[in-house]
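Exercise: predict the fold of this chain.
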Amino acid sequence: MLPMAQDNGDLDSLVRKRIRALRVAQGWSLEELAARAHVSQSTLSRIENGRRRLALDQLVTLARALDTSLDQLVETASDDVVTSPMIDGAHGLMRWPVKGDPGMSVVRQRMTEPPPDNSSRLRAHPGREWLVVLSGTAILMLGHRRFRVETNQAAEFPTMLPHAIGAEGGPCEILGIFDRDARRGHQRDSADQHSDGDRDTGGPRA
């Protein structure tokens, strides 16, 4: 077995605590996780308590049993934990990239206009979006359906369905999370709308 570097005591201790914390969070006993990971209960107990060396093959097996990855199991915080948003003041938009997944973005936007009445102006593109309304009321047009999303309510949908987001009864603020394809789709929509001179009614741009 390939042992984990033992000169890094902090990381060693962190991984052991993380294994136990993940097991407890799942509501599993030592016996249950040991069975899932195909190790003996005594071996798992010694791993958690620091009485057995951490071996790479066992960490991979434990990570899989805990429904996580080896990278996440041994991950430590980087120095750049806090980030500032990129700001588009003209559209009341802030965007933060998700460092753990460079293809994802988190966007905060203040919306004042209602969604378009004309279904031909709804946009569709690959991807998936998740949004939560921080204040006010948002209207999500999704295909031929109309959803009213109140403050603190969330919505999740595939962006291959024609869609648009707007405000109802006054300004609203939304926080959206876009996967890589959805982010690219909104960037293309934004470029098209700027070239056409249209106002933005297709939802937050990532």
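Check your answer against the key: Residues 1-7, 197-203 have pLDDT under 50 and may be disordered.
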